[in-house]
Write a structure and sequence with these properties.
It is an enzyme of class 2 (transferase). This is histidine kinase. By secondary structure, the protein is an alpha+beta fold. It is built from eight helices and 14 strands. The two termini are about 40 Å apart. The relative contact order is 0.07.
Length: about 450
């Protein structure tokens, strides 16, 4: 089952939508602050004019402060018919001369300064259940027996101000909101058009026959090119693996068919022959069965090496111990053999696959014993270390391999001209295993006759 995540369309639209929503919220609060400031400036002029109109009627009569509230001073605030208006005039003795005596006072942080100009000091304060905008204006009185400030305070509820602020906010944000919705719709359509090549790519791959591993040639956007290149690279590797598998199967079938045909022929000869002919046929059957057994074992070894070289689960192991164990497993399979292992190393730590390297050693030993010369096969295995690398040499006294044929010897089912039985897989297995460990394998002639297989492997610290 294919693991699925949120679609690209939803991711892109969701990201853009979230950004748009956050931007709209930020714009709303910014517009609201600006609209309230603009509304306050507009209505504060009327509020300041009302207070100034009242302040101009302040007079001193018989040693008392007198105020004649003009109708025009409150009428100018009628532009906001839904708002309530409050006023108060306070004498130098802090007593209310006229108006609402319980109006909120100027905030304590601003009482130290008195505005004797025409603007006044503005502040907001709750009063009788509503938020009210106030202006406080001071006038200095200097008469015999009376000196001080008379304060005129006029307040107006914020209904009209807040209504104007809302109109300004929604009037400015509504077009932006509509434009944003239109932009999201356009983006949705654009994303749909941008993703169509992926749909065509998927349709092309779905309609292909299983054996069609040719490269994808569908035109795709620049951003999708790496994906198509990765798919083409994967299909190229798969095509090469399938071709190699078919070749291997064909070669293996040919190699298996030959000893099987020989066994069948010898069995048929033994049916009507005398005792000597039966013995000869049984010996031939035994030889072909051994050849077939070796071929099957090497094919299994080759499959194991291929799998483990792809998986590459490498761990640290001791190459010296692995070689000794491989000797114990491989040498008893052949009688009358002389296989010696020499090394000055007590341990040889290596990062790799112990099983693969064990197969390498066993295949080299079996090759050396199979193709060795004479009744007594001499095989020498030598492990040395130099410049952070291990050098493993397996030497025999066989006919060797001519320099012109050494490259071909590493191919599957390639056999020399020694006339000895063999499947032709041993060196191919060795090369694949060694190369998966970033090593190198070479064939050299041995002084005095024979072949030397030299393997170079990077040490643990390399």
């Amino acid at each position: 089952m294919i693991a699925q995540t949120t679609s690209l369309r939803l991711r892109l639209v969701g990201t853009l939508g979230a950004f748009f929503l956050v931007s709209m919220v930020a714009l709303y609060f910014a517009a609201l602050a600006y609209a309230r400031l603009a509304a306050d400036k507009s209505y504060d002029r009327l509020l300041s004019g009302s207070a100034l109109s009242i302040a101009e009627t302040i007079s001193i009569t018989d040693g008392q402060v007198a105020v004649d509230i003009p109708f025009a001073s409150l009428d100018m605030l009628s532009a906001a018919p839904d708002d309530r208006v409050f006023y108060r005039v306070v004498g130098p003795d802090q007593r209310t001369i006229t108006g609402y005596s319980d109006l909120p006072k100027l905030p304590a942080t601003r009482r130290g300064s008195v505005d004797v100009g025409n603007a006044g000091q503005f502040f907001d304060a709750p009063y009788r259940g509503e938020q009210v905008r106030f202006v406080s204006l001071g006038r200095l009185i200097a008469q015999p027996g009376m000196k001080g400030f008379v304060f005129v305070q006029v307040g107006q509820t914020r209904r009209a101000r807040d209504g104007l602020a809302r109109e300004l906010v929604f009037g400015s944000l509504a077009p932006i909101l509509l434009l944003g919705i239109f932009a999201v719709a356009i983006i949705w359509i654009g994303i749909d058009r941008a993703l169509r090549p992926l749909g065509r790519l998927g349709a092309e791959l779905a309609e292909r026959q299983p054996q069609d591993l040719n490269p994808v040639e569908t035109a795709v956007p620049l951003e999708v090119v790496p994906v198509v290149q990765a798919i083409n690279g994967f299909m190229r590797r798969l095509r090469e693996n399938v071709a190699a598998l078919r070749t291997f199967i064909a070669d293996a079938a040919h190699q298996i068919r030959t000893p099987l045909a020989a066994i069948q022929a010898q069995a048929q000869l033994a049916e009507g022959g005398d005792v000597e002919e039966v013995r000869a046929s049984l010996a031939a059957v035994s030889r072909n069965a051994a050849k077939l057994t070796r071929l099957v074992n090497q094919m299994l070894s080759d499959a194991t090496i291929q799998h483990r070289s792809e998986v590459r689960v490498f761990k640290e192991f001791d190459l010296v111990a692995t070689i000794r164990q491989s000797l114990r497993e491989a040498v008893p399979l052949t009688d009358d053999s002389d296989v010696r292992f020499t090394t000055s190393l007590r341990t040889a730590p290596l990062i790799g696959d112990r099983l693969m390297m064990g197969e390498v050693v066993k295949n080299l030993i079996q090759n050396a014993l199979t193709h060795g010369r004479g009744d007594h096969s001499e095989v020498l295995i030598e492990l040395t270390e130099a410049n952070g690398e291990y050098r493993l040499a397996v030497m025999d006294r066989g006919p060797g391999i001519p320099p012109s044929d050494r490259d071909q010897a590493f191919e599957r089912f390639a056999r020399g001209n020694s006339g000895q039985p063999g499947a032709g897989l041993g060196l191919a297995i060795v090369r694949q295993a060694v190369e998966s460990h970033n090593g190198d394998v070479n064939l050299e002639g041995r002084p005095g006759g024979g072949l030397v297989v030299v393997i170079t492997l990077p040490g643990k610290g390399a």
